Amino acid sequence: MSDLHVIIAGGGLGGLALAQGLLRAGISVAVHERDPGPAFRNQGYRLRFDPDGITALRAVLTPQAYQVFAATAGTPGSRIATFDHHLNPQHVQELPLVPGLPGSGNLAVNRMTLRQILLAGLDKAVHYGARLTRYDVSASGTVTAHFADGTNATGDVLIGADGVNSAVRKQYLPQARVVDAGLRLLYGKVPCADDRARSLVPPELLGLWTTVVGPERRFVGLAPVQYREPMHQVTARLAPDIELGDDSAYLACVFGARREQFPCTDAELFAMGGADLRALTLSLVEGWHPGPVETVSRQDPASIFPVAVRTSVPVAAWETTSVTLLGDAIHTMSPVIGVGANTALRDARVLADRLAQAAGGRPLTEALRAYEEEMLGYGFDAVRDSATYGNRMLGQDPLPSGQP
């Protein structure tokens, strides 16, 4: 075990992936998560994984855990399609295939299943109910993180992986802004475990990702999550020590529009229950093709929740210290091109590798600077690409001008 000790603020996908990579490298790590338990908040459903995300998980997970990830991921092909609200095709794209990766580099992943895989083996490393409030850096460079419950933790490095509202970012980079992108999304699930349920969804809506765009750029996004075998069979065959909750096939269903399209205030929207959110969505897709309307109507009301889309504004590089940032804490982005989780996992892979170099003798500041230079390049490229596509296709606010 290396003498290096890393503190991670935030137990989301990026923070947990980093912890897995560090443990594989023999580096001491502690994850401090504000939530009281691993399944406290509804954080979403289906994620699209591309080669960056898949390659990152292959690097940070144990071989057995990676096999469980690959076996529990859906393989819906590589087609991304856009239709108008009468289901006339507007654009169809087949993403490149990458031989040697599961699903040829295109997977549909259930977020909670992935989270359970990433938590495997981290029982002693993850501390719940630990909301970071501030940190101090000593003259020697060690960092002490302070938590709302009065406890603290000291290490050689502090990683802010604490999401879009990152307390680490607010202290470390007060000039870094996160802005409202102008879109509101309603996430939900359509159960489709049996053939009859699946037959009710038009087959053209069952690719890797499908967007149906209606008047005033209101849209419905659809993507299937289907499992090839029951979870308990996967773990029994590949990794009995990993515990996964049971799940059944579903269609992720996301309605989105500009905030002005909703006939209510944000406060009213975020106070609504699932049945009311479904009724609201149906009122906003009235007159559309029966296929997407029927799909929306079959959402499980208990699964529906609203999200305000936000985006980081790119910032210039900063002076490297023993504090750095990962994932949404530095480059949160609109989900419209589906690369946010992949980018966070890429961060975890790169940072784990750089910290392993530091544990092997490379100066710590030099290793962290190398991570930041790489991460700021691809991370803010993804932010810009997401904002550009979201603005053109869905009316997302453009990024504020004048940024690096």
From TrEMBL:
<protein>
    <submittedName>
        <fullName>FAD-dependent monooxygenase</fullName>
    </submittedName>
</protein>
<keyword id="KW-0560">Oxidoreductase</keyword>
<dbReference type="GO" id="GO:0004497">
    <property type="term" value="F:monooxygenase activity"/>
</dbReference>
<keyword id="KW-0503">Monooxygenase</keyword>
<dbReference type="Pfam" id="PF01494">
    <property type="entry name" value="FAD_binding_3"/>
</dbReference>
<keyword id="KW-0274">FAD</keyword>
<feature type="domain" description="FAD-binding">
    <location>
        <begin position="315"/>
        <end position="379"/>
    </location>
</feature>
<keyword id="KW-0285">Flavoprotein</keyword>
<dbReference type="InterPro" id="IPR036188">
    <property type="entry name" value="FAD/NAD-bd_sf"/>
</dbReference>
<dbReference type="InterPro" id="IPR002938">
    <property type="entry name" value="FAD-bd"/>
</dbReference>
